[in-house]
Amino acid sequence: MGVERTLVLIKPDGVIRGLCGNIISRFENIGLKIVAMKMIWVSKEMAERHYEEHVGKPFFVGLQKFITEGPVVAMVLEGIDAIEVVRKIVGPTEPKSASPGTIRGDFAHLSYSMADERGIAVKNIIHASANKKDAEREIGIWFSIDEIYKYENIYEKTL
Ligand code: ATP
Ligand code: MG
Predict the structure, then answer these.
(1) Cα–Cα 20 to 30 A to 84, which of 4, 34, 46, 130?
(2) What is the pLDDT of residues 15-26, one digit of tens each?
(3) Are 33 and 79 in contact (CB under 8 A)?
(4) Ligand 1 within 6 A of 110 CB?
């Protein structure tokens, strides 16, 4: 338990559907602190770096196409156990299985089988780092040290 940082990406499907405000509000509402944020239209090479664990898997070509088909909003969120808490709010990978109340469950419904049948990635609105090691690696890909800010938010002031 402790203060952690995690990388969140609002993927191109979330951006073109105008969901950024709603998604960001969910993190702000529970007191997580935005310490870095920007919009980027990623290259195929950056997609490979970010999703290096998936390069070569059957869905990777579709995943690369998906994440590069429009701009993404990238942010670093900070808070106590932020990595686990953010994954809980995001919900499981497959929108069909994601519970209502989670971001993926509220804004998408498609399944792995539908995506696999069509040879596309399952479009699921958002990415969040899976663990501490991934979070550190991913934050280093998307942000330089001087793009990440230190300040105290109102929740910390009342802890
Ligand atoms: P993310 O890393 O984007 O936060 P995740 O950690 O929940 O998602 P991963 O297993 O890392 O899930 O998969 C990365 C992304 O690849 C998924 O978010 C989804 O868009 C796509 N994906 C994963 N598995 C499949 C699959 N079997 N078929 C189609 N697309 C898939
Ligand atoms: Mg992942």
Answers:
(1) 46
(2) 999 999 999 999
(3) yes
(4) no
pLDDT band, very low/low/confident/very high, at 1 (cuts 50, 70, 90): low
Rounded to two decimals, what is the model's pTM? Answer: 0.97
Whether 8 has a pLDDT exceeding 80, the answer reads: yes
CATH class entry, domain 3-144:
alpha beta
Please tell me the distance from the alpha carbon of residue 97 to that of residue 57, in angstroms, as a whole number.
Answer: 21
For 36-57, write each residue's pLDDT tens digit: 999 999 999 999 999 999 999 9
Phi, psi of 5 (to 5 degrees): -120, 145
Measured between alpha carbons, how far is 59 from 49 in angstroms, rounded to an integer?
16
Which of 29, 10, 42 lies closest to 125 in space, CA to CA? 10
**Is 78:32 a contact under the CB 8 Å cutoff?**
yes
Polymer length of the chain: 159
Residue of 57, 86, 122 to mutate, ligand 1, most atoms within 8 A of C-beta = 122
- Going from N- to C-terminal start, the domains of the chain cover 3-144
Q: Which residues contact 25 (CB under 8 A, 6 or more apart)?
A: none
